[in-house]
């Protein structure tokens, strides 16, 4: 059985003192949640603050992006090795905000994946279609091309360090959640793609998160689906009560 993962993507929110306060409240509200993995992804500048607060707990730390080289003359970029060095275990790559605001291609994301995995990080790779692509019946083609582009040169040994997040772009930050059956259909498609490409063991062990307007009220109906193994949460992860409630509802629903 796959262990659920609930990840908070704080995006460009929670600077110095806010990040300390939020991570302290999350730490204090969580007793010992061993049946579920909990991951916090603060902005770069808050990572060490959060690390100091969660370091002796089971809460995992991650970043929201990184570069595809481990060092050198790349002004303004952050190496995956630096993230590892300050306590990160995960990095989110290919988020739609990076694909569409910053022009990140599947090829570039693939390079970031290889460098991050070479450095020892785990990855959450985000995929998902835009509204017009969904309406034109292209959602599955889009997700398939995102997967094919990013996994082209990836050594198979690295696959167990990868989590995929299906995040329909039209559901991110909009309050519109994808219907659980519609989400499950895409999750199943993603798992089947892995099965064909990498075999049963890899596809059965792959965690596939759903992301897009997850709230305490809708997590239970999503997490009970066969191929949905957790959530990548933006807005609702910025509020301690809603984030904790999402975690509690997840645990309740999977037991
Ligand atoms: P949201 O964001 O929960 O605010 O929709 C999800 C994400 O972008 O990962």
Explain what this protein looks like in three dimensions:
This protein has 255 residues and is α/β, with parallel strands linked by helices. It has one domain (5-254): TIM Barrel, CATH 3.20.20. It is built from 11 helices and 8 strands. The protein has helices at 16-29, 47-54, 80-85, 96-101, 106-119, 131-135, 139-150, 180-198, 200-205, 216-223, 240-254, and strands spanning 5-9, 37-41, 60-63, 90-93, 122-127, 162-166, 207-211, 230-233. Strands 1-2-3-4-5-6-7-8 form an 8-stranded parallel β-barrel, surrounded by 6 helices. The radius of gyration is 17 Å and the shape is globular. Bound molecules: 2-phosphoglycolic acid.
Summary of the model, kept short:
This protein is α/β, with parallel strands linked by helices.
Chart the SSEs and their pairings.
Layout: E1 5-9, H1 16-29, E2 37-41, H2 47-54, E3 60-63, H3 80-85, E4 90-93, H4 96-101, H5 106-119, E5 122-127, H6 131-135, H7 139-150, E6 162-166, H8 180-198, H9 200-205, E7 207-211, H10 216-223, E8 230-233, H11 240-254
Parallel strand pairs: 1-2, 1-8, 2-3, 3-4, 4-5, 5-6, 6-7, 7-8
Helix pairs in contact: 1-2, 5-7, 7-8, 10-11
């Amino acid at each position: 059985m796959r262990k659920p993962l609930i990840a908070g993507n704080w995006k460009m929110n929670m600077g110095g003192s806010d990040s300390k306060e939020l991570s302290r409240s999350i730490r204090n509200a969580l007793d010992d949640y061993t049946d579920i993995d909990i991951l916090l992804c603060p902005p770069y500048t808050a990572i060490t603050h959060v690390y100091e607060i969660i370091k002796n707990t089971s809460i995992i730390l991650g970043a929201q992006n990184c570069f595809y080289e481990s060092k050198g003359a790349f002004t303004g970029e952050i190496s995956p090795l630096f993230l590892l060095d300050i306590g990160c275990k995960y990095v989110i790559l290919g988020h739609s905000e990076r694909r569409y605001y910053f022009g990140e291609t599947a090829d570039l994301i693939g390079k970031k994946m290889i460098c991050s995995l070479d450095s020892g990080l785990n990855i959450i790779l985000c995929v998902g279609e835009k509204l017009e692509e969904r309406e034109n019946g292209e959602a599955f083609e889009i997700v398939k091309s995102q997967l094919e582009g990013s996994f082209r040169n990836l050594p198979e040994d690295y696959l167990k360090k990868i989590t995929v997040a299906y995040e329909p772009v039209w559901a991110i930050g909009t309050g519109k959640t994808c219907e659980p059956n519609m989400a499950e259909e895409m999750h199943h498609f993603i798992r089947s793609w892995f099965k064909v490409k990498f075999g049963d063991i890899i596809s059965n062990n792959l965690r596939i998160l759903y992301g897009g307007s997850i709230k305490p009220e809708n997590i239970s109906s999503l997490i009970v689906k066969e191929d949905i193994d957790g959530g990548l949460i933006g807005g609702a992860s910025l509020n301690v009560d809603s984030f904790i409630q999402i975690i509690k509802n997840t645990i309740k629903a999977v037991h």
